[in-house]
Specification:
Number of helices: 9
Helix content: 55-70%
Radius of gyration: 31 Å
CATH architecture of the largest domain: 3-Layer(aba) Sandwich
Largest sheet: 6 strands, parallel
Number of strands: 6
Low-confidence stretches: 243-258
Distance between the termini: 49 Å
Number of domains: 2
Mean pLDDT: 80
CATH superfamily of the largest domain: NAD(P)-binding Rossmann-like Domain
Strand content: 5-15%
Oligomer: single chain
Structural class: alpha/beta
CATH topology of the largest domain: Rossmann fold
Order of helices and strands: HHHEHEHEHEHEHEH
Length: about 260
């Protein structure tokens, strides 16, 4: 279905084309009537004037034809390039608008802060579970990966309340703190708790010493993926059987801690 913006662009192109035809017709008429140009020379001069081509009435007929083709082809290439660039920019802008509208309409969704290995794995599980989620990350590389994956995102600092509000933290049901160090995750948990008390927060811990701090900050779920991964590795190596963690986020190394 054609969007409103695309429809307006199409109408604008039609109007410009009609105006160009009218001006060209009047120019040809003027060259013939007032300057006594032969019809071909009138068309030749009009096109050369429109395209800013280097033309001369002293050229032979074949040279005039060659000049016309050169002028028209060069402007055709230019027009195609302009249309391509304009279309790309417009489609990019439309994509951004649709994504922002989608995020604004999210309710009872999940916010993943940090698109590293843990955040990316969590997103894969959420996507497989058909959960609605949005990712917050400040890295250009992460944003590029999110665009390629078609995942809704907010580019910004997850430690800023304004960024979390853009992600709809007041309407969300869960925040996953998957930032790159314990201090950032603790500060993120504190920030989320200041904005809303009802939301559940799952946080990664890099060290056992940070678990108490994360609990105190208000995290509901705290995990150390390295420990869970080591437990899984040992059990599999000893052929004990499938290890089942206490959380639906097992694949991302998340487990309930309280």
């Amino acid at each position: 279905m054609q969007s409103k913006d695309e429809g307006l662009r199409g109408e604008a192109r039609k109007v410009l084309f009609v105006v160009l035809l009218v001006i060209s017709a009047w120019a040809i008429f003027s060259f013939i009537v007032f300057e006594n140009f032969p019809p071909f020379d009138a068309v030749y001069e009009t096109i050369c004037s429109l395209t800013l081509g280097k033309c001369s009435l002293d050229y032979t007929f074949p040279a005039k034809v060659a000049s016309l083709f050169l002028a028209l082809s060069s402007w055709l290439v230019f027009a195609v390039l302009v249309e391509f660039v304009t279309g790309y920019v417009v489609n990019l802008e439309l994509g951004e608008r649709k994504m922002k509208k989608r995020i604004v309409g999210m309710k009872n969704h999940i916010i993943v802060c940090g698109y590293g290995d843990l955040g990316r794995t969590a997103c894969e599980i959420f996507k497989h579970s058909e959960e609605e989620f949005v990712v917050v990350d400040i890295s250009d590389k992460a944003i590029g990966n999110l665009k390629d994956a078609g995942i809704p995102y907010i580019q910004g600092d997850a430690l800023q309340g304004a960024t979390l509000r853009k992600a709809g933290v007041e309407r969300a049901k869960l925040v996953v703190a998957a930032l790159n160090n314990d201090s950032n995750n603790v500060f993120l948990v504190l920030t989320v708790r200041e904005l809303t008390k009802k939301i559940r927060i799952a946080s990664r811990a890099f060290s056992e010493q940070s678990i108490g701090k994360l609990h105190g900050a208000g995290a509901d779920i705290i995990v150390m993926p390295e420990i869970l991964g080591g437990m899984e590795l040992a059990k599999q190596a000893l052929n004990i059987g499938d290890y089942r963690s206490g959380s639906s986020l097992k694949g991302a190394g998340l487990a309930a801690s309280k």
